[in-house]
Specification:
- There is one protein chain.
- By secondary structure, the chain is of the alpha+beta class.
- The chain folds into three domains: about 140 residues, Alpha-Beta Plaits (2-Layer Sandwich); about 150 residues, Sulfite Reductase Hemoprotein, domain 1, CATH 3.30.413.10; about 60 residues, Alpha-Beta Plaits.
- It is built from 14 helices and 14 strands.
- The chain is globular, with a radius of gyration of 26 Å.
- The termini are far apart.
């Protein structure tokens, strides 16, 4: 009997077991056409054996751009020469991730021509990722992408590529036009995307309703989420049909009792909602989507401060603008003005590698609101205070002579060579 040929990648082979599709199987098939992918699997197997990442990262800039290409060099390139340079090109995706088949074929052709033929839809920021090009081919691919109407995405200390849910193109829950707003913000701030100039990265994500399908609250610095400020629309005939089909007990168990503020009541096969106490969680609308719908007076809530782990751990965004309309040119100009004021204050006083949420955490929300010219609003409170005592400065006794006046640690970058504390109370 002939002996079974010993596998060169036993650890990777384990990832092909089980009922789910495996990326290892896909890469093995691609390696038949692209020898570099075979070497990629070899390095990955070695990484699994040694528990060590053999990639070294840096940035390559195509002419006129300050980011968008993530350069990766193998530190064992002498063993795997075909992937000694294995770069990633970030490509700005269409708003809502809506593609024509022609556009997808175009991306595949460029990827086959210049890189390893591996496309990722999509990166965590939202970009299309084109993997596996060397220094020379990377710049050639970028040129052809731009000739075909695509553009390079963001990276580094700048605006990152925007992403949004599909919004009104497909979803009846959308409270504003996510696709139009994403395109508008991208076009308006394309310079900040291509030429990093911030203390650290800044991300927008847009969701058409509080379901937040774009995952904006956790994954972006400035989520823009559709909402409404009038009453939930209730179709009592559809409510009755739903109850006749599912039963009152089902509605009580799956809608009434699951309302976080207990603002829904069921009487005589009719639903009544105390809209003043509704927190727009969308649960009742998701369950009874024919009977209930978002209100008619629609707009957006703007939040600030979400991000993944770094200085202060993972954070979720909190409200900065409870409600604003986003329909007219004037509405969009107000949004642009707010963004510019936030960027100006954060860029002036933020530390290197400090996200805007970390900046707010350091200087305090009061100082931040004063710096961007917004009045405080109760809806900006992240959570109720736990200390019942309040200290009012104007009612407090005079400070002891020599006691320093407490001021937030805001850095004035205009003075070179040292940092000073700016008294925001003046």
């Amino acid at each position: 009997m002939s002996k079974k040929k010993e596998s060169k990648t036993p650890l990777l082979d384990d990832l092909e077991d089980g009922p789910w599709p495996s990326f290892i199987t896909d890469l093995k098939n691609l390696a038949k056409k692209k020898p570099a992918v075979g070497q990629l699997l070899g390095q990955l197997e070695q990484s699994y054996e040694e528990r060590w990442d053999h990639w070294l990262g840096t940035v390559i800039n195509t002419p006129g751009y300050g980011g968008g290409i993530i350069a990766r060099y193998s530190d064992i390139g002498n063993k795997f020469p075909d992937i000694a340079q294995f770069h990633t090109i970030r490509v700005i995706e269409p708003a809502g991730w809506v593609y024509s088949t022609d556009a997808l074929r175009q991306l595949c052709d460029i990827s086959e021509k210049y890189s390893a033929g591996i496309l990722q839809f999509h990166g965590m920021t939202g970009d299309i990722l084109m993997l596996g090009s060397n220094n020379e081919k990377t710049l050639e691919a970028a040129e052809e992408l731009m000739e075909k109407g695509w553009d390079i995405g963001g990276s580094g200390n700048g605006l990152r590529t925007l992403s949004c849910c599909i919004g009104p193109a497909y979803c009846e829950m959308a409270c504003f036009d996510t696709l139009k707003t994403t395109k508008f913000l991208t076009d308006t701030f394309i310079s900040q995307l291509h030429r990093p100039e911030f203390p650290y990265k800044f991300k927008f994500k847009l969701s058409g309703c509080p379901n937040d399908c774009a995952n904006s609250i956790q994954r972006s610095d400035m989520p823009i989420i559709g909402t409404w400020r009038d009453e939930i629309q209730v179709n009592q005939e559809e409510v009755k049909k739903f109850i006749d089909e599912k039963g009152e007990e089902y509605v009580v168990d799956n809608v009434i009792t699951r309302c976080p503020t207990k603002c829904i009541t069921l009487k005589n096969k009719k639903i009544e909602i105390d809209d003043k106490n509704c927190v727009k969680c969308m649960h009742c609308i998701n369950v009874m989507h024919k009977a209930l719908a978002p209100g008619k007076d629609r707009g957006v809530t703007i939040l600030l401060g979400g991000k993944r782990t770094l200085k202060i751990g993972d954070t979720m965004s909190s409200v900065i603008v409870p409600f604003m309309k986003l329909e007219t040119d004037e509405d969009y100009e107000k949004l642009i003005d707010l963004v510019r004021r936030i960027w100006e204050f954060w860029t002036e006083h933020g530390m290197d590698h400090e996200r805007v949420g970390e900046f707010i955490d350091r200087v305090g929300l009061g100082t931040f609101l004063d710096g961007i010219g917004l009045e405080p609003d109760p809806q900006m409170v992240r959570h109720p205070r736990t200390n019942p005592y309040i200290k009012f400065e104007e009612l407090a006794p005079p400070k002891i002579d020599g006691e320093p006046k407490v001021a937030p640690n805001v850095v004035d970058k205009e003075i070179e060579g040292r940092e000073i504390v700016v008294d925001m109370q003046k």
